[in-house]
Design a protein that fits this description.
The protein contains two helices and three strands, in the order E-E-H-E-H. Strands 2-1-3 form a three-stranded antiparallel β-sheet, with helices on one face. Strand 1 and strand 2 form a beta hairpin.
Length: 81
């Protein structure tokens, strides 16, 4: 079974601010939520920030261990800032 995660991310200065909007059972429902939220304050000026990510239920995603997206992007761990 597939699940569709609707999220919104926008850049604020040198950081990113993200919101998980919802999890849907179909891509069509996820797209409907995006259309609704695109009209709301705080989202309407950054429509490009919406993402729909597909996940498969009961699938393992990090079998090789923990890999930090932060470290990969910035070349340091968060505590080293």
């Amino acid at each position: 079974m597939k699940l569709y995660l609707v999220e919104h991310v926008q850049k604020r200065g040198k950081y990113f601010d993200g919101k998980m909007i919802g999890i849907c059972s179909t891509k069509e429902k996820a797209e409907e939520i995006v259309r609704k939220y695109e009209k709301l304050e705080g989202f309407k000026d950054t429509k490009e920030g919406f993402k729909i990510r597909t996940f498969t239920l009961d699938k393992n995603y990090h079998e090789k261990g923990f890999q930090s997206w932060y470290e990969k992007k910035y070349g340091q761990t968060k505590g080293e800032e």
